[in-house]
Amino acid sequence: MGCVNVKKQTKLRMKVTPSSTVVTDNSRRSSYELPSPSPSDYEPLSFLGAGGFAEVTACKHIRTKSIKAQKKIPKSKLKPYHLHQSKKPKEVHILESLDHPNIVSFFEYFEDRENYYLITEICKGNSLYSNLIKSGKFSEKKVKESMFQVLQAVEYLHDKKIVHRDIKPENVLLTSSNGSHVKLSDFGSADEIGVNKKLFGGFGSVFYLAPEVIIGEYNEKVDIWSCGVMMWVLLTGKQPYIEKDAKTIKERIVQRPLQPCQIELGGLSCDGLDFMKKMLEVDSEKRISATEALEHKWFEDCRKKYE
């Protein structure tokens, strides 16, 4: 979940066992800093959300008084594929390597006998999903601004041979309640992919899965498909499939995957419709890349604003 939305909730008390191991991103720490932080340096404030088997709380760094997000991951829930060869969570390994204005900032992590704790920045504007619930659906202009920023993050990830595998409105967060700056979060399903290599396994939320994820092997283009589904959801305010359980949704994705229709997307410009069709191309080899997506005519005004 990473950088998460902030809601006023009841204060929590978090128990951390005394024998904790602290691990930090040494590249971001200088030699004159204070000793390495410990769990006691953070005061838990409020529950922010949960997803999968992790939960996230807002916390205060006692020395600096800064507010952060703390993601707690039970070690008992992790499978071997969740861990990097260095034995730390793969999510940590990936987050340590990232530095992009549209990706949540990672600060450090530590562990105790039972859990890993990841410290990231906190976003006060809630997720796109939370905002979608309030508004019903987004205007084409708002969707365009959000999609352009998300795809800038995706291009950066793909250039680094990283696949997110769980792009959805819940994982795209606004940095402020009255702004339009968004950040991609939650790298719990992310993985690295080698040159000319493929990934396997069904990761991410079922509504946003690309057909090839269900069929077998796949590459970074699954993130583009997820972006296409997310664009459709933001514009319509609806779920992409009427089926309810995971099994039948997967069957539907393989047999009759989501395809944009002008009737359902009433009011969407011709350029916007063309763009969505290119992201929701069933054949992943023909599907648009993140770099090609950012060069699409639909984003002409966004390129002037953000670049």
From TrEMBL:
<keyword id="KW-0418">Kinase</keyword>
<protein>
    <recommendedName>
        <fullName>non-specific serine/threonine protein kinase</fullName>
        <ecNumber>2.7.11.1</ecNumber>
    </recommendedName>
</protein>
<dbReference type="GO" id="GO:0005634">
    <property type="term" value="C:nucleus"/>
</dbReference>
<dbReference type="InterPro" id="IPR011009">
    <property type="entry name" value="Kinase-like_dom_sf"/>
</dbReference>
<feature type="domain" description="Protein kinase">
    <location>
        <begin position="42"/>
        <end position="299"/>
    </location>
</feature>
<dbReference type="GO" id="GO:0046872">
    <property type="term" value="F:metal ion binding"/>
</dbReference>
<keyword id="KW-0106">Calcium</keyword>
<dbReference type="Pfam" id="PF00069">
    <property type="entry name" value="Pkinase"/>
</dbReference>
<keyword id="KW-0479">Metal-binding</keyword>
<comment type="subunit">
    <text>Monomer.</text>
</comment>
<dbReference type="GO" id="GO:0005524">
    <property type="term" value="F:ATP binding"/>
</dbReference>
<keyword id="KW-0067">ATP-binding</keyword>
<keyword id="KW-0723">Serine/threonine-protein kinase</keyword>
<keyword id="KW-0547">Nucleotide-binding</keyword>
<dbReference type="InterPro" id="IPR000719">
    <property type="entry name" value="Prot_kinase_dom"/>
</dbReference>
<dbReference type="InterPro" id="IPR008271">
    <property type="entry name" value="Ser/Thr_kinase_AS"/>
</dbReference>
<comment type="similarity">
    <text>Belongs to the protein kinase superfamily. Ser/Thr protein kinase family. CDPK subfamily.</text>
</comment>
<feature type="region of interest" description="Disordered">
    <location>
        <begin position="15"/>
        <end position="40"/>
    </location>
</feature>
<dbReference type="GO" id="GO:0004674">
    <property type="term" value="F:protein serine/threonine kinase activity"/>
</dbReference>
<keyword id="KW-0808">Transferase</keyword>
<keyword id="KW-0677">Repeat</keyword>
